[in-house]
Every structure is written in C-alpha cells, then in structure tokens.
Amino acid sequence: MDFFEKLGDTITTKGKEVSGKAKDLAEIANLKSQINTCEDVIKKNYMEIGKRYYEKHEQEPEEEYDEFFRAISNAKTGMEELEEKIRRIKGI
Asked: Is residue 26 part of a domain?
C-alpha cells in the first residue's frame, strides 16, 4: 500500500469517527431536550397540585404548610397594593 492509500484510509476512518461523534452529540442534545420537556411537565403539574391544595385549604392550613400559606397571602396582599398604586397613577 502506498502513502496516498494509507492517507485515504486514515481520512476515511477519522471521518467516520467524527461523523459518529456528531450523530451521538445530536442524539444526546435531542434526549436532553426531551428530559427538559419532562421536567417542565412535572413542574407544571407540581404547581397545579400546590395551587389546588392551597385553594382547598386556604382557610385552615396544616401547620407544616403554614409558612408557605403566609408567604402566599403576603404576596397577594403586596400585589393588590401595587395594583392599586398603578390604578392611582393611571387615574382609574
């Protein structure tokens, strides 16, 4: 085998390795994207469960959740106050 045949074989082999690695990276990126989608679905549903639980137990929260209910209540009060300030600025 002469030099150019060996060079051609080396380039072909390396090209296949690079191509294989590129395919692997693309597949990994795709799988990570799917994992992110799954995580988003989980977060969305956790939030919905929490929201429904809060609405159902807002008047009588269990002690272990009391600090979270208080934080939500304080945030709601703060939002109402800020929205009122916006209405006053707008002259509504």
From this structure: no
Domain membership flag for residue 73:
yes
Q: Range of 91's domain?
A: 63-92
Residue 64 has a CB neighbour count (10 Å cut-off) of: 7
Model's pTM, two decimal places?
0.61
Residue showing tokens 């988003």: 40
CB 79 within 8 A of CB 72: no
Q: In tens digits, what is the pLDDT along the chain, a chain of 92 residues?
A: 576 676 566 667 766 777 778 888 999 999 999 999 999 999 999 999 999 999 999 898 899 999 999 999 999 999 999 999 999 999 88
